[in-house]
Design goal:
The complex is a heterodimer of chains A (325) and B (314).
Chain A (H helix, E strand, L loop, with lengths): L1 H28 L3 H6 L5 H11 L5 H13 L13 H36 L4 H15 L2 H15 L12 E3 L2 E3 L4 H34 L2 H8 L4 H39 L4 H10 L3 H29 L1 H9 L1
Antiparallel strand pairs in A: 1-2
Chain B lengths: L1 H5 L4 H11 L1 H7 L2 H18 L1 H4 L40 H37 L1 H15 L3 H15 L5 H32 L2 H8 L4 H13 L1 H23 L11 H11 L6 H28 L5
């Protein structure tokens, strides 16, 4: 058991170290940090002094260790383009992305589960088939095309909803939220639906497949034989048993939501981390890129590690396998 | 494959005849969805391949562009001209022609990345399955890690790193970086599939026979195992072309894809997106529609191929 946990933790650490190494190599080989900080006209003494200051005269492993220690404390230096500390930029942008991803996740769950149940119960009926055909579009339409279509229909033609920015936000210390104002909520609708489209169809198809599977099980037949109402059979017995895989998938997808937010944020000019990252890529703003790379990898590694450990807690078969190794 | 090239010259005609008499062709003829998808794909392919001949204008020839003709709506709308069937963009470029050239670039990048990821994935999968042991563990561990990140994110990272290494790269290099970014995320699927089938093939008698008569491992892998594990790769490749095209379009839409001098469908959508608010919907709508049509039909073809090649479903 300990071996299993240990192996997963070691794997996570190795992944994080490789990501940190890539980020470190970016700093090393892209542009000269000394020239970036001092400008072209600096004297040689100034350069040497700064090199010493930054630790650039030390051997390679020492520099890497130093980078990892700094990165672990969230210290990635100063953005080349905006001239501000990267950590401050990320802290400022993170709430917008998290809010968008969470709202999209709730939309995906809140619509995906009932629609999936509906499609399963009405299997073969026209309405369910239309619904399933619709999911085909959700899966195969590129995310940004969905966003553009939504903007075109609801913002340009109907003029119902705003299509860029976060609108009015309320600040709590360094945390900002658009959930408390009407303007902020209106601004959230289109991006959140765009971002949730893929996950929504995924959850819907998953719930439908699981429901169809469960409805064939013996205990459903017994529940019917006991004379329970349809409602109680479907929602009390069947749905409850389909939710375990759905919740696992959703948990895993939270990372994807944050990653796909890059595209949605670009379409809707949403001032989140993804928008920051795309700008950084376009201007080769290494510190911001490196910070985003490390942060997003950390989020993914933590989510995956968490899910693995949860599986381990839930599924006894894994424990047996762990012992045999 | 090498085996095909060395076969007798009469083989192509008989292979062709066998194909038309075979199950796959029959299944194709009896599936209207597959035929429609194939027709759409074929039209797009022809337009893309022969863009110089088919396209009514050359959108990259600056001499023929007229600013007077900019922002014309499609021909059937008030103000449109029959000269520009689908309208023009802000610089007076004919959208239909730009679409054809853009489709060519999108397909080129998509197919090139799929070929490269097949090369990487199949070799690594074969190696992992055939050699086994530590090599297998290492390759599969890398696959696990790659799969735990969404492919678009990895592609963005690679493309971003490539761009910052060579900020003023010539166009050719930008294409190479883009193809690398897409294929370095796509190979994992092939590696896993091929490894699985290789593990099965490895213990079969023909491999043991080859070993007994002293054929080298590399030759066994290439000449004996490889042809037997390629079936599922074909199906996977069809579906992966669609996702490679979407990845390319997404990267180009984000402005980190193809160089601006050779716009793909994603670039066209990005350009059109800027004018969406002033009411010129056609600049962004047509490339979006083309992108959706291509990926949808390629996906449907892939689905059909998977069912047609699966003996259990017959």
């Amino acid at each position: 058991m300990l071996v299993f946990i240990l192996r997963r933790v070691v794997q996570a650490v190795v992944v994080m170290l490789s990501v940190a190494f890539i980020a470190f190599m970016l700093f090393q080989y892209v542009g000269d940090p000394v020239t970036n900080l001092l400008g072209q006209d600096a004297t040689d003494e100034q350069r040497t002094a700064l090199r010493k200051d930054l630790g650039l005269d030390q051997p390679f492993p020492a520099q890497f260790a130093r980078f990892v220690v700094n990165a672990a404390q969230g210290e990635f230096g100063i953005s080349l383009r905006q001239g501000r500390k990267v950590s401050a930029l990320i802290v400022e942008r993170f709430p917008a992305t998290l809010e968008l991803a969470l709202v999209a996740g709730f939309i995906a769950l809140g619509l995906g589960i009932p629609l999936g149940v509906y499609a399963a119960l009405r299997r073969g009926k026209a309405s369910a088939q239309v619904l399933m055909a619709g999911t085909l579009f959700g899966v195969s339409l590129p995310n940004f095309v969905i966003g553009i279509v939504l903007i075109w229909v609801f913002a340009v033609e109907l003029k119902w909803l705003p299509s860029f920015g976060r609108g009015e936000v309320v600040a709590f210390g360094s945390w900002t939220t658009g959930l408390l104002t009407r303007d902020g909520l209106l601004h959230l609708i289109l991006p959140a639906f765009t971002l949730s489209a893929f996950q929504l169809t995924l959850i819907m198809r998953l719930v439908r497949a699981e429901m169809l599977e469960v409805l064939r099980a013996d205990y459903i037949r017994f529940a019917r034989a006991r004379g329970l109402t349809d409602r109680s059979v479907y929602f009390g017995h069947a749905l409850k048993n389909t939710l375990v895989p759905v919740i696992t998938i959703t948990g895993l997808q939270l990372g994807s939501l944050i990653a796909f937010a890059i595209i949605t944020e670009q379409v809707f000019q949403w001032p989140g981390m993804g928008f920051l990252f795309i700008q950084a890529v376009q201007f080769a703003d290494i510190p911001v890129m490196a910070a985003y790379l490390c942060l997003i990898s950390l989020i993914f590694v933590v989510i995956n590690l968490g899910v693995d450990l949860l599986y381990f807690a839930v599924d006894p078969r894994l424990r047996v396998e762990g012992k045999s190794h | 494959m090498a085996a095909d090239a060395t076969s007798s010259p009469a083989a192509p005609t008989s292979a062709l005849r066998r194909f038309f008499a075979g199950d796959v062709w029959h299944s194709f003829r009896s599936s209207p969805v597959a035929m429609l998808a194939a027709a759409i794909t074929a039209v797009c392919l022809v337009c893309a391949l022969f863009a110089e001949v088919v396209a009514p204008h050359n959108p990259f020839d600056l001499a023929t562009l007229e600013l007077m003709d900019s922002l014309k709506p499609p021909a059937w709308i008030e103000g449109g001209e029959s000269k520009y069937l689908l309208g023009t963009d802000g610089q007076g470029r004919d959208i239909l022609s730009a679409l054809m050239y853009g489709t060519r670039i999108s397909l080129l990048v998509g197919i090139a990345s799929v070929i490269l990821s097949i090369l990487i994935g199949v070799s690594l999968g074969l190696l992992a399955g055939f050699v086994g042991g530590r090599m297998d563990a290492l390759i599969m561990r890398i696959c696990d890690v790659m799969l735990s990140f969404p492919s678009i994110l990895v592609a963005l990272m690679i493309s971003g790193i490539g761009r910052s290494l060579y900020p003023h790269a010539p166009d050719m290099l930008a294409f190479v970086v883009l193809v690398l970014a897409i294929s370095l995320t796509g190979w994992v699927q092939y590696a896993r599939t091929v490894r699985g089938s290789t593990l099965v093939e490895r213990n079969k008698e023909y491999v043991q026979a080859a070993r007994v008569i002293g054929v080298g491992s590399l030759r066994i892998m290439r000449r004996h195992v490889l042809p037997n594990v390629l079936g599922p790769v074909l199906v996977l490749a069809t579906i992966q072309i669609a996702s490679a095209i979407i990845t390319e379009a997404t990267l180009s839409f984000l402005g980190v894809g193809v160089p601006p001098t050779s716009p793909s469908l994603g670039t066209l959508i990005r350009n059109g997106n800027d004018t969406l608010f002033s009411g010129e919907w056609w600049i962004t709508a047509w490339p979006s529609l083309t992108l959706v049509l291509i990926t949808l039909s390629v996906n449907l073809l892939g689905d059909w191929l998977r069912d047609a090649l699966n003996p259990r479903l017959r």
